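Table S4 entry, AAA+ ATPase domain-containing protein.
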Amino acid sequence: MAAGWNESRPEAPLRVELVGGDLTTRTDIAAAAARRTGLALYVMASDDVPTDAAERDRLARLWQREAVLLPAALLLEVGEIDREQTAATDAFIEGAAVPLVVSSEDPRRTGRPRGERVTVPGLDDGEQLALWVDAFADIPRIEEAHLRSLVAQFQLPPHIIRSAAAAVRRDLPESDADTDTDALDPTELAWRAGLIEARIGLDELGRRIEPEAAWDDLVLADHQARILREIVAHVRQRATVHQEWGFAATLRRGLGVTALFAGGSGTGKTLAAEVMAKELGLDLFIIDLSQVVSKYIGETEKNLRKVFDAAERGGALLLFDEADALFGKRSEVKDSHDRYANLEVSYLLMRMEAYRGLAILTTNMKKALDPAFMRRIRFVVDFPFPGESERAEIWRRVLPRGRR
């Protein structure tokens, strides 16, 4: 971006379309490019572009004068706007005669793209670790091994990592003599800060449960309990397997842990997920797939993308309820609706393969699931209806001691 602005001619200034990532990261990138070019950076939202043509032209002339005198570049953040505001924004961009950055989550659909498109790059584990090490460099008792576990769980942008480090500094006492050092372990504070930061974006997509249940609350056969503990062990050892042993660089896909909980209502599927979230120190987010699936073409993929993009930040155990609402057997293509329904399933399978976290899906009808989907599930746990002895044990655990 900086090189393009330095080489651009006054009559044809470079326009940059910056896409992907989050708003703050895009702003940081644009600001860094402006500094390297010797430009100030100003920010405007697409909502503020006048829809009246005369007012819009006047704003464009005034800004062009200021941009030349300062000199400066403009960052135009394009959000979700209506058709009229979109037309006004497109007209303002087309008429820009000074350095301009068009920032958006997704590429703009325009028939005549001009300038350069820059996609916010994703950070690999090594880059993520470097960010955590730099942010926590002055915080005592946090070793690189602790930070590797954070990298395995959280995929946070740089400014969020710095915010988490600032929260840890704020919560730590000024001296170890002021309080019980075990009560305020910096590693636990860092994990908690990562959880809080990672919740952003998921709270509006699902129902969050702060887990309280423990293993003793589960009444399951030894076989099912053993599989659940094995899933927890897989999640805990991700940092060792993926980073220290180097499997993340060779596998690339399928780094997450996915499980299917099959059984009727009331057999303990959600409780088991809560127990696992408690054991792993994660939030539990319940996503109702019947609410995610839309009758409008393309909307289901959009909803799923929002869920997975937010979940990629980490800090959550995803529980997809009513999986058969979307993961039923793919139908024979007879019309366009069947074709798009199959695309929805394929998109979900692709995202699940690439998802780094722990995703649990529940179903009441295991036989209705697509075999291609079943092949991508690492763990399958059947929750049978509890027998007489299990039901008696559940009653004993539910009733207060004086009422048994």
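The CA atoms of residues 98 and 215 lie 62 Å apart.
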